[in-house]
Amino acid sequence: MDALNFDLLLRILVAHFLADFIFQPTSWVKKKSEHGIKSGHFWLHIAIHLITLSVLLWDWNLWPVILWVTLGHLILDALKSKLSNSSLWIFLADQILHVFIIIFVWLIYSDQFQVFCDTASIIANDQKLWGLFLAYLVLSTPSSVIIAKMTQRWSEDMGISTGSKGLKNAGKWIGIMERLLIFTFIAINEFSAIGFLLAAKSVFRFGDLKDTSDHKKTEYIIIGTFISFSIAIAIGLFYKLNLF
């Protein structure tokens, strides 16, 4: 089976991220949100996309790629400008659609659609990859729920569910990120980095612990941390031993 040629794709992606982030000031984004396609900054942004693509591709024979990618970007930005909601999910959906259009144009123009489908089929049937996906999935929200259930009686005893002064769901996301990092370190055989992560978290937590006279809070944090680390290490070892 032929290998995919990513040269053209990479250049298009570089052009996209340069034009969409590096060459687009925040003030332009605000003007586009306020006035949509009536804003001069909207059309200036599209022109910069066109110029950036043309410079990086630098081949007149690639004009269909430049045309369709620019046109796709124009349509998506025009649709996005009609949405009053500028949440993170809208932003992510917009970027995913941009990348999808780029990949689609790249596959069609470079005549690699069949190669892409064959490669995707091989990846979809890779047991190791599914095991990796399962591990990351379990270490996210499912593990947070397990830890919350295991420490529920202590959190209720301290009134954490109603009296916490921390950022909403911050502890949950900190736990998810630390477990994903631990698993990743195990998967790439960087076990020493786990110790560094534990030390770094201890330093950040030290201020909270030394200033509180509540012994229960200290114990609660330590228990939650060790449960989180233990789950991540266990799943990491299961993965390394090919147990799933």
Describe the structure.
The chain is an all-alpha fold and 244 residues long. The protein has 2 domains: 7-124; 127-240, no CATH class. Helices cover 80% and strands 0% of the residues. It has 13 helices and no strands. It has helices spanning 7-22, 26-35, 40-57, 63-81, 88-109, 113-124, 127-139, 141-150, 152-158, 160-163, 170-187, 192-210, 215-240. Helix 1 packs antiparallel against helix 3 and helix 2 (26-35) packs across helix 3. The longest helix is centred in the C-terminal third of the chain and has 26 residues, at 215-240. It is extended and about 65 Å long. The protein starts with 6 loop residues before the first helix and ends with a helix. The model has no long low-confidence stretch (mean pLDDT 85).
Please provide a brief summary of the model.
By secondary structure, the protein is mainly alpha-helical.
How many separate structural domains? 2
Give the mean pLDDT. 85
Number of helices: 13
**Low-confidence sequence ranges:** none
What is the end-to-end distance? 28 Å
Largest β sheet strand count, sense and barrel closure: none
Strand content: under 5%
The rounded Rg comes to: 24 Å
Please give the number of β-strands. 0
Estimate the global geometry from the Cα principal axes.
Answer: extended
Structural class, from helix and strand content? mainly alpha
